[in-house]
Amino acid sequence: MIVRRTHLTLALVATVGATLVATLVAGCAGVAGLGTPIPRSDVTVFAAASLRDAVDAVADDYSRRGSIPVSVSTDSSATLRTQIEQGARADVYLSADAANPEALAAAGLVDGPLVRFAGVRLAIVVPADNPAGITTPFDLGRAGLTIVAAGPAVPITAYATALLENLAAMPGAPADLIRAYEANVASREDNVRAALAKVELGEADAAIVYASDAAASHAVVSIDIPPEANVVATYAGAVPTTAANRDGGHRFLDFLIAPDGQAILARFGFEPPP
Predict the structure, then answer these.
(1) H or E element: which one contains 250?
(2) How far is it, in rounded angstroms, from Cα 260 to Cα 153?
(3) Cα-to-chain-centroid distance, residue 227
(4) Is residue 199 within 8 Å of residue 148, measured between CB atoms?
(5) CA atoms of 260 and 257, how far apart (whole Å)
(6) Residue 5, H or E segment
(7) Are 144 and 253 in contact (CB under 8 A)?
(8) Which of 80, 94, 98, 228 has a CA 20 to 30 Å removed from the CA of 274?
(9) How many beta carbons lie within 10 A of that of residue 8, not counting itself?
């Protein structure tokens, strides 16, 4: 489901005389940290589901500083990319990988360069009471577990595959870890937040998610992953050619990679892009 939140609205100033005239408050307002004025105009952001809380916070801060109305829609990166390909007028597209923005660029649907704006490591999460008694990543291949994952087009799936391959290559790993893990996957969800939700509800024994998602949930605990096996996901953004406000989209991306934007992302467990 796409979630839309509008954080601010334009003020409508009315004067009464012979004719009622409505005018929008014009002018410019600066965003701290950028040093350039920003025209007052709506910005629509399409963001990966794993960015939901972080981008809402960035949008709130951006709106407050510049009196810019920002709306945020979240879903899987692949779903949002498809919507843009079909003409959706997003001013900014923030993906949980670089592959989806690169696909848009290859199709001529990106205005300007791609911007890598964040990275985050993976986490293996289990319900807080851990009824299956999972203690190591190798346990993901234990027979009888219920694991929830994401669909093949969702970025977390490629990252999880890389993680499993790294784990399988480690000393002491079960010989059939990857095959056994796949056998335990009971469902594939539309996005990583949906997979996390099933673990939170106790409907699954484990899932591989982003560390930022794990840190934001009080209903799950994380299983330690050897640092040498973990994977850093790369988040990239772009301004689609379908944007109604390309200039506003570029300015939002500029804010996201500026120190203030990066500080907000860091609060939610993200790190600078690799």
Answers:
(1) helix 246-257
(2) 32
(3) 22
(4) yes
(5) 8
(6) strand 3-6
(7) no
(8) 80
(9) 18
Domains of the chain in start order, with CATH, are: 3-119+234-267 (3.40.190.10), 120-232 (3.40.190.10)
| Torsions phi, psi for 235 (to 5 deg) | -100, 135
The pTM of the whole model exceeds 0.85: no
Q: How is residue 27 written in tokens? A: 């002018």
H or E element at residue 23: strand 21-24
Residue indicated by tokens 């993901």: 140
Interval 187-224: pLDDT, tens: 999 999 999 999 999 999 999 999 999 999 999 999 99
In one-letter notation, the amino acid at residue 171 is P
Rounded CA Rg of the chain: 21
Q: Check: CB of residue 236 under 8 Å from CB of residue 103.
A: no
Counted residue by residue, the chain has a size of: 274
Of residues 75, 25, 41, the one with CA closest to residue 55: 75
Nearest to 91 by CA among 252, 236, 264: 252
